């Protein structure tokens, strides 16, 4: 068999551990799953976890948060590239997240919000990772808004409002087992922004 005919390698152990942690964070939160279950889902022995993540479960959770943000940014960047209006891109971003939440029977939410709610003041690494995550999302949206003509200070405020609506709407939809809370919040936010720009 030539090199070009070899099967594509599957995800490595590190990637499988991150995927297992991400799934756990989406569905059950950081404290809702144990290491044994995570390792079984990833198909990895315990020693391998500490080889890749010497800080154990917390370091793995931080890696999962970073991976989630990278994926979110990739998705958001694609929407921004296809839409001249960043508010329309934000609408599609929220609509996509709402559809994914609904498709899982409202079991799989945003892992950033789940970890943020569980974290305590002593969880410095987790809180630092979350702060970076939310700041990066806000900044990416703010840059797009500025490019579309929004003044810098206003762009930062609107970006913060969009991210807050995204995260808060998903949380409310998940506990209500209904898309209505996020759809209502999204529609109201976008209507307010549209009316503001029309003035």
Order of helices and strands: HHHHHHHHH
How far apart the termini lie comes to 66 Å
As a whole number of angstroms, the C-alpha radius of gyration is: 19 Å
- Characterize the main sheet: none
- The structural class is mainly alpha
CA-based shape: globular
Number of strand segments? 0
Q: Averaged pLDDT, please? A: 89
β content, as a range?
A: under 5%
Low-confidence runs of at least 5 consecutive residues: 1-9
Oligomer: single chain
Count of helical stretches: 9
What portion of residues is helical? Answer: over 70%
Describe the structure.
The structure is a single chain. The protein starts with 12 loop residues before the first helix and ends with a helix. With 199 residues, it is mainly α. The chain has nine helices and no strands.
Summed up, what is this model?
The protein is built from nine helices and no strands. The chain has helices at residues 13-27, 35-42, 46-52, 56-82, 86-103, 111-118, 124-147, 152-176, 180-198.
Descriptors for this entry?
globular, mainly alpha, about 200 residues
List the helices and strands and how they pair.
Elements: H1 13-27, H2 35-42, H3 46-52, H4 56-82, H5 86-103, H6 111-118, H7 124-147, H8 152-176, H9 180-198
Helix pairs in contact: 1-2, 1-4, 1-6, 4-5, 4-7, 5-8, 5-9, 7-8, 8-9
